[in-house]
Amino acid sequence: MGNKFILLVEDNPDDEALALRALKQNRIDNGVVVARDGAEALDYLFGKGRYAGRDLNVMPALILLDLKLPKIDGLEVLKQLRANPLTALLPVAMLTSSREQSDLLAGYKLGLNSYILKPVDFDQFTEAVRNLGVYWLAINETPPSGRQVQ
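^ that's the sequence the OP posted. Answer follows.
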């Protein structure tokens, strides 16, 4: 799947470990950058804070974004991504346990690409991660890194 990588934005260490294990089990060997709250995710994507100086031409092929995050929640992260020409086209999949219709609708209104409920069962979760990886990293064509919305 080439040199495409994933940005995993997840504050729960158990869910983070589960996602990383599911990726490994499915042989999705892409790099994974982990941000543990919304502020860290935005810092990474926009090259601020401890990520100052990061090459902003290198962007993730997929962002797996939790909804309920400390500091800045997932919907606000998504809103800021879509408002910035540098990140407006990045594929974002909300990986959440929220079954609230209002969360689902708000995500899609903000430009979410996919809304996936976190399955409780590991096998279901592994299958969901496999499907995400195959589609977003192998099948889907994304704009070249560094390509901004005009």
